[in-house]
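Lab notebook, bench 4. Still working through the backlog of constructs that have no structural model yet. Next entry is a single chain of 403 residues. Request: give me the structure tokens for it.
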Amino acid sequence: MIPRLKPAFDGDELAAALRQPSRTDVRQFERAFAAKFEAADAVAFPYGRTALKMFLEVVGLTDAEVIAPSYTCVVVQHAVMLSGNIPVFVDNTMTDYNMDLDQVAAAITPRTGAIVATHLFGFPLDIIRLRQIVTEAEQRYGRKIWIIQDCAHAFGARWKGRLVCEDGDAGLFGLNISKVVSSIFGGMLTFNDRGLADRVRQHRDAGLQPGGLIKSWLRFAYLAATYPAFHTLPYGLVHYLQYRTTLLDRLTKAYHLDEEVRFPPDAGTQMRPIEARVGMAQLRKYGWMIERRREHATRYAAELAAVPGWVLPPVPDGATFSHFPVRVPDRQAAVDHFARHGVHLGEVVEYSVGHLPAYRRFSEGVELPNSLYCSEHMINLPVHPQLSDAQRRRIIEIARLIR
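Model written out:
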């Protein structure tokens, strides 16, 4: 079975993981990451959600409103809640699936403390207009409104030639195996302000535990397991265990906590050196990974326009395509159709956060129809770098069988 995602791990990542650890591994990874994405500095975390929570703590936000899209990963709002702040939801557009900036402007109040601007699926949000909206609101209310560019899907995405992570006060990245760049697990914040980066690093070091050798061994075991697990032949078994049995539920629910406002059990420990070394190996092949994703997306866009009922995404300059999202009339029918032909489709964001039970009280009176519709009608075609041209052609053939 062709997997919906596959980390671009080869011998380089395994060799990096097996190297002798050094106390400077994480700091070297931070510096390399900052250089790759044109930032002054970067600070590493065990998860992106931990990074966001600690950033909000460092800048002193408590009981403040934090605006974010409803159609995004729920861990964004988990971080907002666990930092003692209040989530405010806005709907997304039906073009690039990013948050509606008209709604962002309308949602800002004197209590607004931050905006988490998600660049979903690798599509860049209009950072110029967002900056204008925030500047006008800061002048109107006489207070700082922090901008966090959520780049978990948007490594290297650019708006009018500028990296989206360059704008605002911080760029937020996730580094798990589903991301464009992976350090097994992990997260990163990038900064243009070295002083702010230093404050965040100090807060991290004071608030997170070292993690220890057990965490390192578990990370290595997880890395080693990805090699057979995502191979085309055994992936069929993995798919069966995930969707036809409950055997993988415990591991899945430990990290994807959609219904409960909490973090994974190891979210309070530092990134380990093994993760940093794997991340360094990934950065060295970053250019190739992005080009392969763009190549896959371009071919899909050119060859799938006539599939009945499908609404294809835009292919804008500056997009990096963490996913290739397609709006379909019946998601389950599409998923089942591809599965019968040996392809696992991704679904990624299967919910509207504002409609989840834990967050419904924060979205009362807020219209989020696009978010709800997308949560029920979106699929994602495989675009991972190790997808072969032959596999891509097979996926296109299967899509054309839809009537």
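Notes after review: The first strand starts at residue 41 and ends at 45. The first helix runs from residue 11 to 18. Flag for follow-up if needed.
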